[in-house]
Amino acid sequence: MPLVMGIEPPTPLFETTKPVIGLTIDPERLIEIRRNRLTQMMPDRRPMESAADYAYIDLEKVQEELHWARRLCRRHNWPVIDVTRRSIEESSAAILELMESR
What we know:
By secondary structure, the protein is mainly α. The protein has one domain (11-101). The protein is built from five helices and two strands. It has helices at 11-15, 27-41, 51-57, 59-75, 88-101; strands at 22-24, 80-82. Helix 2 (27-41) crosses helix 4 (59-75). The radius of gyration is 16 Å and the shape is globular. The two termini are 21 Å apart.
């Protein structure tokens, strides 16, 4: 479930008995992914043509978003896995390993 700063996550997330694991990523890598996403969504225009685009790929804003998400996870004792340099398979293995250790 993606977390969006400024929008309260759904209540069931806090009430589930299933494990919740936060995934995080390096801010520069996230910006790269977001730039590519903007380009693919709107190929006829360049990123940074609107204020929303700017906030979406602004380093300071992205760092603030990631910090907010980490605080949320810390507040609820949810473990966090950094997936910056991991493939999907490696991320899955790390999640399974974490769940087995709990």
